[in-house]
Design goal:
single chain, 383 residues, alpha+beta, four-stranded antiparallel β-sheet, three-stranded mixed β-sheet, 9 strands, 13% strand, binds flavin-adenine dinucleotide
Amino acid sequence: MTHETAVLKAREIAGSVLAPSAEQNDTAGRFSSEAVQSLGQSGLLGLMLPADLGGAGLGPRTFAEVTATLAEADASVAMVYLMHILGTATISAARPSAAQTVTPILEEIAAGRHLSTLAFSEAGSRSHFWAPISRAHRNGDGVLISAKKSWVTSAGHAQSYVVSALAPEGTGPTDSTLYLVAAGTRGLSVAGPWDGLGLRANASAPVVLNDCPVPSDFQLTDDGAGFPAMLNVVLPLFNLGTAAVALGLCRAAVTGTTSHLKNAKFEHLGQSLGESLPTLRAQLATMQIETDGLAARIDDLVDHLEKPRETTMLRVLEGKAAAGEVSISVTSAAMRVCGGAAFSKHLSIERLFRDAHAGAVMAPTGDVLREFIGKSLLGIPLF
Ligand SMILES: Cc1cc2nc3c(=O)[nH]c(=O)nc-3n(C[C@H](O)[C@H](O)[C@H](O)COP(=O)(O)OP(=O)(O)OC[C@H]3O[C@@H](n4cnc5c(N)ncnc54)[C@H](O)[C@@H]3O)c2cc1C
């Protein structure tokens, strides 16, 4: 698979599987298993895995474009995909002693038969995912984990969860370890429904672990090395992926608004809305400018990830913070420009508007990212 064929496959799936059911799935809060199946069959679930495991061996550029393409049709599915790619990257980066256990799982992912996700956020530490309240306890060779994970995308649908917990002997709030917990593990259960304002079709429900036994070969990082894995493996791709979801939402808002301005008529004037009102044309133009600005920012972030340099972490932090604002701004403008038609849900604009708000809530939130950027500019330690 090349970059071009991967994006083409994403476009085909977006058009044939995602777009036709996005509206109904959003209304019903229904997780799209068909979408995951199509992504698996097309090879996109193994997008970033190396070829010797059956993966496509592609990088952040393709990941961003595929995610944005999916989000343009259905941001809920794009978020499921994003969390899967992150789960997969974390499993793939497992310490050498877990290699024998994780290799067949990575092969299953590449074959499109395994969906993974991250279970970091906890009810106790809220958006501060880097500081789990839960602690793993020694249990023979392995550990027992009890935790209240507050939001887990694909909860009840994923085959595995990458779970954080404080290391058994950890002394500080970030001394965490990452573990791979299979969906059927004793003590793991989905603890409630998912009924969010946006991203309603991605099953981001709470998950409870109650004395879940995790054998030592399912321990992905060394004891206490969960935090560096969160920062180095998860954060760059998560921020890039959420920025790509934001871009897809912006593109869909521009397309939807353009179509409305062309097709809705002032019959008494014999003109379309777009022909009649320069204010609407100006707002549409602003939406386009902001969308293209976000695309350029994502290109720059990809370049920084492909060729790491001193400014890479700054770009990673900026990327998600900026994308969250842009997607809220562009979809809010779309709501205003499309007026009553958007407000009364005759267009998909209001779904885009609701979905866009999730990005700013997801940790690291826009506020936290600003805190990190400000502190790092001033030379103040982040944690
Ligand atoms: C759709 C969706 C899917 C999700 N999927 C997952 C998932 O798969 N896995 C997972 O682990 N988590 C997931 N999450 C959880 C998410 O990452 C956050 O942990 C969660 O949204 C916490 O929200 P909160 O409002 O309770 O946080 P709070 O910490 O209560 O934040 C409340 C407010 O305080 C602000 N704030 C907090 N700390 C600071 C600070 N230091 N400086 C400045 N402002 C601050 C925040 O920006 C926010 O505005 C998901 C969330 C959503 C919405």
